[in-house]
Amino acid sequence: MALRIGYVPEHFSTPLYFAQQHYGLEATLIPFPSGTGHMVTAIRAGEIDVAIGLTEGWIAGLGKDGVEGDGGYRLVGTYVETPLCWAISTGADRPDITSVDSLAGRKIGVSRIGSGSYVMGFVLADKHGWLKPGEQPFSDTVVLNTFDKLRAAVNSGAADFFMWEHFTSKKFYDSGEIRRVGDIYTPWSSWKIVASTKLAPTDGSLDARVKTLFEKLDRGVEHFNQNQDEAVRYISTSLGYTEPDAREWLKTVRFPSKTEGVKPEVVSDCVAILRKAGVLVKGKGMEPEAMVVRSEAGCRASNL
User: Fold this and answer.
1) End-to-end CA distance of the chain
2) Start and end of every Ca3427-like PBP domain (predicted)?
3) Which of 66, 195, 233, 293 is least surrounded by CB atoms within 10 angstroms?
4) Are 93 and 116 in the same domain?
5) Which pTM value belongs to this model?
6) Dihedrals phi, psi of 203, to nearest 5 degrees
């Protein structure tokens, strides 16, 4: 049976598309434009088998207190090695918001609780000194599910700002729909691959289909690196980005040559920052080492 793979239909999905288009990846690709938080729910519900999403979303999902059962998934691979640039956006006509500093105590829009857009709000607050013990850094957290609703909310005043990936946001700055206030980079490599615990048990015996996925993805990444013009054509014709933005993004992103395996320090460092930011609580939830399942090949790759 073909794997059901959840992914975000943005420019980062290009190597996955190449793996299926050129190298025979047998899988059903299921788009989740609302992001990682939605995929956490879907993989736990058994709607998808594997997913590619944001590091902080996966780790927050496993690390919070009160996760039911075995958590439903484990980190098994690395999809993007570079950090993610989160653009901080407000409405086009919001003269009250002039800088990142003016966002303290405001209403933050997020796609879902536990999503990357939610988690990065706490990282932003920590960076700017807005976190106070036992207090929320924002006056309200408005859950809006989709990027369109986030953009509408900052223009209507239902939310004051939100964060989303830079190049996905840029086209809406260029059109004048929303306005950029600033940006913040993740302090960790940005995208990870997770598998359902049914396919990635803790003994490291990954399902053969997941191993095949890594092989095909590695070829998709190699194709991406060697065929940049084809990547730009796909991104600008199928994913709705401009050609200049696609080319600019290519300068900022690095995919691993081997997608299998996760460096343990990436997970422990992310957990430490999320605990400092108040997203996770030390002593509660899953410990970093329990979040990762690696086969022997993945262990070797992560130690290179």
Assistant:
1) 33
2) 86-184
3) 66
4) yes
5) 0.90
6) -80, 0
